[in-house]
Amino acid sequence: MKKTEFTYAKPVWIKGEETAMNVSLVLTASFSGKDARLKITGHSLYQVFVNGALSAEGPARAGHGFYRVDELDLSKLCGDGENELKIITAGYNVNSFYLLDQPSFVCAELYVGGDLRAATGKDGFSAYRYGCRVKKSQRYSFQRPFSEVYTLPAENVPVALELTGEKNFIERGVPYPDYDFTPFCSVIKTGSFGYKDRERYYGDRSVTQINEKLKGYPQNELTVFSMKEAERLDCAGKECSLPADIINIPDNGFAIADLGAELTGFFSMDVKTDGGRFFILFDEILSNGDVDPGRFGTCGAVIYDLQPGSYRLVCFEPYSARYVKLVSEKAATVSGGGMIRFEYTASLLKPAPDFKGDGQLQRIYEAAVSTFRQNTVDIYMDCPSRERAGWLCDSFFTSRVEYELTGKSLVERNFLENFIMPEKFDFLPDGMLPMCYPSDHNDGTFIPNWAMWYVIELEEYLRRSGDTELIGGAKKRVLDLLSYFRAFENGDGLLERLKSWVFIEWSKSNELTQHINYPTNMLYCKFKRAIGNLYSMPELEKEADRLAEKIREKSFTGKWFCDNSVYGEDGVARLSGLCTESCQYYAFFSGVATKELYPKLWKTLVEEFGPDRKVNNKYPEIFFANAFIGNYLRLELLYREGLYDKVIENIRGYFDYMAKKTGTLWENVGDYASCNHGFASHVAVWLCGIYK
Predict the structure, then answer these.
(1) φ, ψ for residue 450 (rounded to 5)?
(2) Hey, do 12-131+154-171 and 181-196+232-341 end up sharing a CATH topology, with the first three levels equal?
(3) Dihedral of the CA atoms 478, 450, 467, 405 (nearest 10)?
(4) CA 449, CA 522: separation in Å to the nearest integer?
(5) Would you say 249 and 326 are in contact if contact means Cβ atoms under 8 Å apart?
């Protein structure tokens, strides 16, 4: 970790509200001169505006007790006269998969021409409560903090600030986004609405299960229940194709705008209204021709209660969407609408391969790159929508993409480094790593398999980066993890009866994890070998060899690898007899199986499995793999063997329909969950390897 310090600024927050939920603070400063720079960090989030234009959202995330510092060049947004700096900060103080539950603060110092103009804890900033944001709103999702509800205009009430505790400040470590703007490309549906009460309303756990393990405001305390208000809308309309530069919405009207592809960022638009409630509803896809803001457990609704007037609306949180439904109680005109994109900067990417006029592969590649950029702002994320969480295993695949597309592993270093920052992880057993991080898992849930992927990724990271410093810093955490697993080894050296959530992939595989699970043990074999290689521990490589032999002995039926053995009443473990496609891929990926040891099985997998098997299924007894991670392991195995024609054939079958529909690649083979998942960008690695 590269430490940094502020010269003058001290961390501050609203007096007495350092641990209050969903409190927002605004700092403002006026200055003249174009050479302006801002050094800033805080928690939970902040946005920086110069003369009304968004300059930055931050900070980049770090592990518990550490805060990454942004050093922003504001000069491009400064004019010749007086300039206005506005910093909006939010302190959430709830646990999530996305942001840590730590006390709120902001620390900032502004320089103009090299001279200090303002610093928190000293002079130069005016501070007031961001009163327009409604405090008691519902969570956006189980995995993310609060949704956004606003009342505009609102009085700016000055507040007293106090110094908070000292903080550990470190450098950002990753590039800054471009914040490019993409306008709506068309309006595809218009109509009218009324309000209609429903028998049942949105009942996601993020609303119904608020308690000490999932913090937030209970449903009966919400000032506005956003999803209930969205579900009360009873809309009727017709499809159309209209320009979207100016969208006129009549009283009790709506319009659905299309961004052309799924993007991630901040909805931005100018709204002139006669007043009333204004909704921004959004989703990645259309459901029955409409936007369903709660499709996969999210509150895809930003609500504004507006007095008559003109407003520049910019959302505070980043969201993902292709389709945006604008609903207004009173006549409104929306102009300049679209999204300020929040993604990895395009200028740092290598040129695309030459696909020699193959439009389908070009489309899939561009979808992979877009997926990568949206999921790699400060850490590797599973999705930029529902969770924005730094999941292990997903990161193994995304890390390869970063190196392939940029030639560097800057985001990966931040991601891996975060896991070794805290002394321990609250709520988890000693030695275990969080399944995603930075996050707080108050319910004690973890995925033991995902902790193994951390070590497997470390091994590849060392080959990519030569960063022995980070590898050395991770050694204790890795060996503590190994010690945790040793307690679950049986007499054969196989892991059995692992705790919490044993996860293989989103398929039948996850139903076959009880007692002795062989895909888990295959991964454990690779995990031990990785530790041996990282820390020159040959005894662990020998253990891995013995474990592989035992898995072959116990799991292989003569035709397939079986997923698990289950203990009977007599205390003897016997094969369940159930076999999944993904188990076969785990066997070859881990090195437990090779094409030399199992030539018939290898040939069957290569020639008779793949995207067409659901049509021509010769092996109905073998349960299908899903996108994550079975299909990716399959493609990786084909790629390793140089079977490039087969790789390309599979890529076309698995991914083109995704690229056509959203311009991104998905979590599953269907669009019933996230349609933008970071690991899925790994398709770009295979395409670059084949076509460069």
Answers:
(1) -65, -35
(2) yes
(3) 180
(4) 10
(5) yes
Within 10 angstroms of residue 103's Cβ, the number of other Cβ atoms is: 17
The b/e string for 140-170 (b: 16+ C-beta within 10 A; e otherwise) is bbbbbbbbbbbbbeeeeeebebeebeebebb
Q: Which residue has the tokens 């730590």?
A: 102
Residues 6+ apart with CB under 8 A from 404: 350, 684, 685, 688, 689
Give the three-state DSSP class for 233: strand
Q: What is the pTM of this model?
A: 0.97
**Side chain identity, residue 89:** T
Cβ atoms within 10 Å of 236's Cβ, excluding its own: 9
What distance in Å separates the CA atoms of residue 632 and residue 585, rounded to the nearest whole number?
Answer: 9
* Residue 153 preceded by cis peptide, ω within 30: yes
d(CA 190, CA 201): 25
Distance from first CA to last CA of the chain, Å, rounded? 35
Distance (Å) of CA 336 to CA 150, 182, 308, 319, 329: 20, 10, 19, 18, 20
Please, what's the b/e burial string for 247-280 (b: 16 or more CB within 10 A of its CB; e: otherwise)? bebeebbbbbbbbebbbbbbbbbebebeebebbb
pLDDT in tens, 438-468: 999 999 999 999 999 999 999 999 999 999 9
Instruction: Name residue, tokens 């969480």.
Output: 389
Reported as type and span, the H/E element at residue 413 is helix 410-418
Any bridge partners for residue 110, and if so which? 38, 118
pLDDT reported for residue 155: 87
CATH superfamily of 12-131+154-171: Galactose-binding domain-like (2.60.120.260)
Q: For the residues of 76-127, what is the DSSP string, one character each?
A: GG--SSEEEEEEEEEE--S--SSS-----EEEEEEEETTEEEEETTSSS-EE
Q: How far apart are CA 554 and CA 539, in angstroms?
A: 23
What ranges make up the beta strands (E) of 609-687?
A: 622-623
Residue pLDDT, tens place only, 47-105? 999 999 999 999 999 999 999 999 999 999 999 999 999 999 999 999 999 999 999 99
pLDDT in tens, 510-534: 999 999 999 999 999 999 999 999 9
- Which token pair is 650? 């599979």
Q: For the residues 549-564, what does the mean pLDDT come to?
A: 98
Q: Which two tokens stand for residue 368?
A: 């992979």
pLDDT interval class at 379 (50, 70, 90)? very high
627-653 pLDDT tens trace: 889 999 999 999 999 999 999 999 999
Calpha distance 194→235 (Å, rounded): 7
Architecture category of domain 181-196+232-341 in CATH: Sandwich (2.60)
* Predicted pLDDT of residue 553: 98
Burial 572-589 (b: 16+ CB within 10 A, else e): ebebbebbbbbbbbbbbb
Q: What is the reported pLDDT for 614?
A: 85
For the chain, the structural domain boundaries read 12-131+154-171, 181-196+232-341
- Using alpha carbons, list the distances in angstroms from residue 474 to 66, 114, 413, 469: 17, 39, 12, 9
Name every residue whose Cβ is closer than 8 Å to that of residue 401 and which is 6 or more positions away in sequence: 368, 372, 376, 681, 682, 684, 685
Find where tokens 């119904």 sit. 208
